[in-house]
Predict the 3D structure of the following.
Amino acid sequence: MDLGLKNKVALVTGAGSQTGFGKSIALSLGKEGCDVIVVDIDLEGAKKTAAELEASGCRALALKADITSAEEVDKMVKAGLDEFGKIDILVNNAGRARTSPFTEATEEDWHANIDTNLRAMWYCCRAVLPQMIERNSGNIISLSSTTAVRGLPQASLYSAANAAVIGMTKALAPEVGHKGINVNVVMVPGMNDVDSNAPEQGDIANMVVFLASNAASDFTSQTMLTGAW
C-alpha cells in the first residue's frame, strides 16, 4: 500500500535516545520515504539516529534543542524549514516521568512532568502550525501514556501531564481541521524506555506511521491505544 509519505518531512522530538520510542518512529517514517528532522537535547544521540536514516537512503537533519524553551523550539523549527522548506509531520515524542508520593511532590517535580510532556508540546505545535496552515496540510501526532486514564501510584503529576496532552489534542483538532491538519494521540504503555527492537516499539512506530499517512486522512482528535495495559 502506498501510504503517501514519500518526500514528506517529519520532525520527531526525543529521537536521539537509542532505546526510546523516538528512534523507532523516526526510522519507520524514513523507511516509508520521509525526510526526518531528528531533535534531541542530546546532539550526539540525534546524530546517531540521523546517520541510520541517511544510511537507509533518506535525508535527515540532527538538531539539538531543549524543547521546554520556546526560543529553542522556534530556532529548531526555523532550521528544519531552512533545510527542507516544509514540515509536514510533527511527532511530539519527547517526554519525562518524575514520580513521587503525592504529599511529597515538589515544585520541581511538577515542572519536570509538565514542562517536557505538555509545555513542550504546546511550543512545538505553535511553532510548526503556521506553515501547515498556510499549505492547508499537516499531521501532528503526540505521544501520551496509559497513565493518563488508568493512573499509577506516585505518578499523579505525570498522569496529569499526559491527560492534558490528550485534552489539548481534543481541542486543537477541530480548531485546525478545516485547514487540512489532523491532530491525534498515541498512548503508550508504562513510563520507561524499552529496547529499540522490542515488539511494542514496532507497534507504536507503526501506529504513528499510519496516523501520518493517507490511510488515516479521516482520523483526527483520536486517542489510539498501543501495547498492553
Observations:
- Confidence is low (pLDDT under 50) at residues 192-197.
- The chain has one domain: 9-225.
